[in-house]
Amino acid sequence: MSKSTGERQALAPELTAKLQQHSEQLVESVHAGDYSRAMAMISELADVRDQGLYHEVGRLTRSLHEARRNFQIDPRNPEQQEALSKMTDASDRLEYVVKMTGQAANRTMDLVEESMPVARHLQDEAQDLHQQWQRLRRRDMAPTEFRELHARMDRFLAALSTDAGKLYGNLSEVLLAQDYQDLTGQVIQNVITLVRNVEDNLVSLVVMAGHVDQLTGTVHQVEDNQPSAEQGVGPQMMSEQRKDVLSGQDDVDDLLSSLGF
Amino acid sequence: MKILIVDDFSTMRRIIKNLLRDLGFTNTGEADDGNTALPMLKTGKYDFLVTDWNMPGMSGFDLIKHVRADDQLKTLPILMVTAEAKRDQIVAAAQAGVSGYIIKPFTAAVLKEKIEKIFERIQ
Fold it and tell me: CB distance from A247 to chain B under 8 Å?
């Protein structure tokens, strides 16, 4: 919530005026020795504080209702009861992104794993045939071997046509599997918009709550919730602009070699 | 040579497994966090560990500390492959006893180079 060192928000002007007036009268009464009037003033001051508090709680309640309406999670609204709340929807959408990216990665890897042995086999066969072909050109080949080479070349050319077609087909499918970027990109952009709205609404709520804190004199302990570096924090954004983050493998290698690796 | 690959994302395990196979390491095992990996390592069947850092359950960093504290495993070569790129983290990993550190995204060439470097140092 609000930090104790945060800037003080202005009270309503009529409250400030009453506070000033009553506190001056309180000081005057104490100096004049009129203690019963002083007690009355203290009670007046407490009333001012209570009034301000009720006022701010009222505003806080109204803004809470407003925020709930903006989040579309008001359970009394029958239209919205049917629809999932946008917040739950956002989690579902992000799970969809994880699922889509996972599927695309696995589909791509399936196709690559299927294609690699085909390419490797073509390479081996072509190398072998090339050697035989050179022997033929040097006329260093018996007629039986030549007949065998002839048949083998025939099979190779037929296989080459089929296998190249297979590789082409797999590559086209790899290309298609990248459509997840478009679909997940749109979903992520929708979620970003929602998060921005929620953030704006939360900021207004925090400001409202700050007014109440000020009137009640509540000071919150702000806990430091930095994620632990030991558990790991995941990829760093904008690493080029940060001094505590290394921007590539070369930097990591330099750091490690400076440590004696 | 049997290698254990530890990462919480199955796609990343699959990528590393494929790259290792291309480098001639066909005998690999997989685990999705430190809690699963540690008992597998304690069987003594693995000669090399490739681990991510940020995982639910036991993190890769804690796994390294457990491995180095275990008499049977303390000399096991460990290659960290992770998106964690903070200077302090890399220093901490080095002090905890990693044998190599690769940051994601990485290339096949980098993986090959680091693994070869680790083997050079062992021999």
Answer: yes
